[in-house]
Design brief:
Structural class of chain A: alpha+beta
Helix content of chain A: 25-40%
Distance between the termini of chain A: 32 Å
Keywords (chains A, B): Hydrolase, Metal-binding, Zinc
Largest interface: A-B, 68 and 68 residues
Organism (chains A, B): Sphingopyxis bauzanensis
Cofactor (chains A, B): Zn(2+)
InterPro entries (chains A, B): ArgE/DapE_CS, Bact_exopeptidase_dim_dom, Peptidase_M20, Peptidase_M20_dimer, Peptidase_M20A
Number of domains of chain A: 2
Number of strands of chain A: 19
CATH topology of the largest domain in chain A: Aminopeptidase
Number of helices of chain A: 11
Order of helices and strands of chain A: HHHHEEEEEHEHEEEEHEEEHEEHEHEEEH
CATH superfamily of the largest domain in chain A: Zn peptidases
Pfam family, one (chains A, B): M20_dimer
Mean pLDDT of chain A: 93
Shape of chain A: elongated
Oligomer: homodimer
Chain lengths: 421, 421
C-alpha cells in the first residue's frame, strides 16, 4: 500500500522534466521506427495469432491449454527464461542492459475470458471485424505483446530494464486477481517489478490510473425442499432469491462516482416437480469510490435479509425456514497511480505525440493489484476498435491503419518506460 | 380418453356384487395367506433390496443402471419374458391361467427419482428408519413388487390374468410420463393391459383415483449481456426472471380443488462480472381441476410478460431488449377412474378388510396416463411410513409390523384384480 505521506511527497516533488529527455523522444529512435515497420509488415500474422489464441478456450481456472500455447509462442518470439509459473501464468523475459536482477517492467495481458467451458468460440470474420467471445478481452492484447517481442528482437532494440512479458491467469473470474497477485507477491520477479503495465481492451487513448474496487458475493438460499404438489405451501428458496434480486435491482447508485452492480450467475434446484433445497446467485458490485461501494454492500446485505424474511413470512416454515449463506468470493482492492508517476506521464506524452487525446480512467483490471501494493501501474489498450466485452457478440476491428496505430502507442509507452539505449 | 357417455353408462350400470365372490375373499385363500407368510419371512431381504436399489442412481433419463439391476432381480424372482423395452422400462410376466395374449394386469413402480446425478444417495439407517433421497419415492415399491413375485411363485399361486410387473422410467422428470406412455401406447402389451396399478409412495390406505393434471414450462430470459461495470445500466435477464418469479409467488390459488405451483430449477449466467446473456427457470403447475389449472397457466403467462416489460422499462435496451422464450416441457393429462370400476371397488374392499380406512385421493402419478386413455387405473401405497419425498432428507420407516401390513394390502388388491384360481 502506498502510504499517504509517501504519496504526498511524490506528488509534491518537483518533476525534473528539464534534465531528462522527453518520453516522446523514443518515437524518433531508429529502434522504435524499425520495430513499428516490423509490426506493419507482420500485421497479418498478429491477426492470425489473435484468432488462434481466441479459439483456445480459457475459462477462469481453466486457462492451462491457452497458457501452454502462449508459452510456446513466447519461446518462438525469442524471449528468455520462458516458463509457466505455479499459478499458471506464462511469461518470458526480454533482457535489458541493466544489472542482472535489477528493476524490471512487467507488461501483461490476461489469458482468461469470462466464458464458461463449452461456449462456442470460433472466430467469425466479416471484413476487418472479428467476432468471438473473448476476442478483444483480452486475446488481442496477448497477440500484440508477442508482436512487440518479435519486432524488438528483430530490430535489435536494447532496453535498460528487463521487460517481463506475461500472459496471466485470473483476471476475470473469482480469485481476486490471483494471477497478478501471485506474480507480485510470490513469484520470482516480485521484488523486481517497479512498473506494471496491463494491456487490456482496445482503446489506445485511455490510461487506467484508478483501480475500481469490487466486492463479490455468492449467496446460497437454503430451505427444506419438498414435493411440488404435496408439500406446496412450504417456503421456497427460489422465491426468497428472486425477491432479493428484484429488490437488489431497485437500489439507487450514483452515476458519479460510477457505482455499478450485477446479479450474474445462478443455479440450483432438484427437479421440475420439487421445491428446491437450495439455489445460488452471484453478485458483483463496484465503485470508483470506496465509501459508495461500502454503502452499496450494506444495501445488498439488507435486501438479502429482507428476501429471506419475506419468504419465511409468506409461506410455511413447519419443515424448516429459509436461510441465506452469504459468502464473499471477491474483494478487489481499489487503488490509484498518481499522475506524477513516470508511467502515467510517459503514457500521456506518447499518446499525445501519436495524435490522440489521452484520458485517465478508472476500471477494475489486473492493475488494481500492483496499485494496492504501491507499485506504479496502469492499464492501456492494445489498439484497433472493439465492443461488447463479456457478451457473446463481442467483436474487434483489425482494420490495419487503426490497429497498427493503436499498437504503436503501447510499444512507445513500453520502450519509454524500460528506457531505450 | 374415457368418453363421457361410456363413463356414464359404467357409472349407471348395476354392480353385480351378488353374483361375484366378494373381493376380500381373496384374503382367506391359502394362496394369499401363504404368500403373506413368505413376505413376513423374507422381510429383511426386501429391506436389503430397498437399500440396494436406492443406492443405484436413477435421475430422469438416466435410469439405465437401475433398470439393468432391476431386470436381473426380476429374472431372479422367476418371472417370464423379462426384458428392458425400447423406452428403458424393465418388466417381466407372472403367467396366468387365462388365454395366451388375453387381458392382463400391469403393476408398476417407477425407477426414476427426482435427484440429479451426483446427489449423495447412500442410505443412512437409524433403527427402522432408512434415510436417502428416493428411498420412498419410489424405491421401496420396486422392492415390494419383487417380494410379491417371489412369494407368489413360491406359494404356487395361480392367477387368471397375466400380471406384468414393471419398473418403469419417466415418472418424475420431463417427458410426460414417457415410461408408462410407451408401455400403454407402443409397447408389446399395450392392447392387453385392462387394469393398471401404480405402486407409488407408502400409505396403504390411500387410493389415487383422480389424476391431477400438470403443466410445466421452461422459460429462458435472454438479453444483450455485457460487462458488469462498463455496460451497467443495460437490461438484465436475471432481473426480469426474478421479478417474474417474485410475482408468480403472489398468484392466489384455491386450497380446494387443490392447485399448486413451484419455481423449481434455475441456471445461467456468463461469469460473476458479466450481465448474463441468458438465464432459465422451470415452473410446475398442478390442479385437481382442469379449469383452475388453465386459470393458473394464464396468470403465469401474464407474470412472465410483466417481468419482461418491467425490466425493459427499468433499464436501457440500446443493445437489445429482454425476451422470454416460453417452452412447454410437460403437460400431464388429468384423468379419473370411476368409483364403480372393479379395481377401485377391490381396493376399497381389501383396505377395509385389512383394518384400514380407505380414502380416495387425487395426485399426479403414472396412473394419469392410463386414466387419460380410458384404462382403469389407480395408484396405491407400498406400506410402512415415509415422508419428505423430493427432499434430500427423504425417509421411510420399515418397522416390520406396519411395513408388512401395508405390503399385504397391495398383494390383496393385485390378486383380487388378477383373480385367484
Amino acid at each position: 500500500m502506498l502510504l499517504p505521506t509517501a504519496a504526498a511527497l511524490l506528488a509534491a516533488a518537483p518533476v525534473q522534466v528539464a534534465s531528462q529527455p522527453k518520453p516522446e523522444a523514443v518515437l524518433k529512435t531508429k529502434a522504435y521506427v524499425s520495430a513499428v515497420q516490423i509490426l506493419d509488415r507482420d500485421h497479418d500474422r498478429m491477426v492470425d495469432e489473435i484468432i488462434k489464441l481466441t479459439e483456445i478456450p480459457a475459462p477462469p481456472f481453466k486457462e492451462a491449454a491457452r497458457a501452454a500455447a502462449y508459452r510456446d509462442m513466447l519461446i518462438d518470439a525469442g524471449l528468455a527464461d520462458v516458463e509457466i509459473d505455479a499459478e499458471g501464468n506464462a511469461m518470458g523475459i526480454y533482457r535489458g542492459t541493466g544489472p542482472v536482477g535489477g528493476p524490471a517492467v512487467m507488461i501483461a495481458a490476461h489469458l482468461d475470458t469470462v466464458f464458461p467451458e463449452g461456449t462456442p468460440i470460433k472466430v467469425r470474420r466479416e471484413g476487418t471485424r472479428l467476432h468471438a467471445p473473448g476476442v478483444g478481452d483480452d486475446t488481442r492484447s496477448l497477440a500484440v505483446l508477442l508482436a512487440y517481442a518479435r519486432a524488438m528482437k528483430e530490430s535489435g532494440i536494447k532496453v535498460k530494464q528487463d521487460i517481463i512479458f506475461v500472459g496471466n491467469v485470473g483476471e476475470e473470474g473469482p480469485g481476486d486477481l490471483r494471477g497478478v497477485r501471485y506474480l507480485l507477491t510470490k513469484g520470482k520477479y516480485k521484488d523486481r517489478v517497479k512498473t506494471f503495465v496491463s494491456m487490456d481492451g482496445s482503446d489506445p487513448s485511455r490510461i487506467v490510473t484508478g483501480g475500481v474496487g469490487s466486492k463479490r458475493y455468492r449467496v446460497t438460499f437454503k430451505g427444506p425442499g419438498g414435493h411440488s404438489f404435496s408439500a406446496f405451501g412450504l417456503v421456497n428458496p427460489m422465491a426468497a432469491m428472486s425477491q432479493t434480486i428484484a429488490d437488489f435491482y431497485k437500489i439507487p447508485v450514483p452515476a458519479k462516482p460510477k457505482t455499478t452492480y450485477a446479479a450474474s450467475v445462478t443455479g440450483g434446484g432438484t427437479s421440475v416437480n420439487s421445491i428446491p433445497n437450495e439455489v445460488f446467485i452471484e453478485f458483483d458490485m463496484r465503485s470508483e469510490d470506496p465509501s459508495e461501494l461500502a454503502k452499496l454492500e450494506q444495501a445488498f446485505l439488507a435486501v438479502v435479509k429482507k428476501g429471506v424474511e419475506t419468504e419465511n413470512a409468506a409461506r410455511s416454515v413447519k419443515e424448516g425456514a429459509i436461510t441465506a449463506d452469504i459468502k464473499p468470493i471477491g474483494d478487489r482492492p481499489a487503488g490509484e497511480t498518481a499522475a506524477t508517476q513516470p508511467i502515467v506521464r510517459y503514457a500521456h506524452a506518447i499518446i499525445s505525440a501519436l495524435g490522440l487525446s489521452p484520458r485517465s480512467a478508472s476500471s477494475s483490471t489486473d492493475a488494481n493489484l500492483p496499485m494496492s501494493l504501491g507499485v506504479p501501474a496502469v492499464t492501456i489498450g492494445s489498439g484497433g476498435e472493439g465492443g461488447r466485452a463479456h457478451a457473446l457478440d463481442e467483436w474487434i476491428d483489425v482494420e490495419k491503419t487503426k490497429s497498427l496505430h493503436g499498437a504503436s502507442v503501447g510499444l512507445g509507452i513500453l520502450l519509454a518506460t524500460a528506457g531505450v539505449k
